[in-house]
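Possible regression after last week's pipeline update?

I re-ran a chain I had predicted before the update to compare outputs. Posting the input and the new output here so someone can diff against the archived version. Not blocking, just want to make sure nothing changed silently.
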Amino acid sequence: MREDKVLNDTLEVLEEEGVKSAYDYVAGHMKDIPKPSGQYYNFLYCLAALDGKTDEAMGYLEEAIIQRGYWYRPEVFEDEDLDSLRERPRFQELEEISKRRYEKALERAETKISWEKRTKDNILLALHGNQQNMSHSREEWSVLSDKNLQVEYMQSEEIDSFDIFRWEDEGKGPLQLKDCLEKIQWDEYGQRILGGFSAGCNVILRAILEEGIDCSAIVLQSPWMPMIENQLVTLVEILKEKNIKVMIICGAKDPDCLEPSKTLASALINNEVVVKSVCVNELGHEFPEDFKEMVSEFIRNS
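New output (post-update):
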């Protein structure tokens, strides 16, 4: 089982059955994950601490930071889930080790892009979600690559924790995206498609609105879009003016993103913007199994 699936399922178990069941679930599946990420360990030690298993929680934190060499942004240690550990001297030592590593990572932080040269007629540039990296994007979006479509990936400069990154809701993501497009000969491609997962979608929409970037189409997977709360009308006007086609895919079991997805789709339809909106039953905040088929058809018809 994939790690992201385990973590999403853990959140579902937590909501439906409580802390103990959630901890048992994520701990029980650890054997299925060849190299648990820092995020996986975060689930383990937070849930263990909440379940009263403070020694086990400290063991997971020790393993993550000392054995694995992971680190976290300082806000992680402020989580109230960890209150039962906070007074332990070893907790404070591990927090300090993590903080020093985080500060060094900040000094090296930069936007990254996979693109090296133009190899095909059309391009899709994919943006990861929060607590992800370029490799996560590659796992999902690479299936769309074919003889006519070059798929590339962009990674945020906004660091989250060890080897994972984020897009702040009002951060510099749009400017990062604009700068990347200038580097990759964007305007020389035929079809120019931007694809985003979760918070990556917010960056794409903000960049269209704030930085004036242009593209043929956008694919929004499980879109986290706080920007539409105050800018929906202007956004729809610009998408229509630029003739940008839109695909929205969201899971029926994705409460944070489902209603905003419906709101955007409805506004686009009412303003005669070309949009394909798909609500996938039994899907949470993740990619559907038939993602390739869905999006390939949309691209062919764009």
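Follow-up from reviewer: compared with the archived run. The chain has two domains: 3-108, 112-300. Marking as no regression found.
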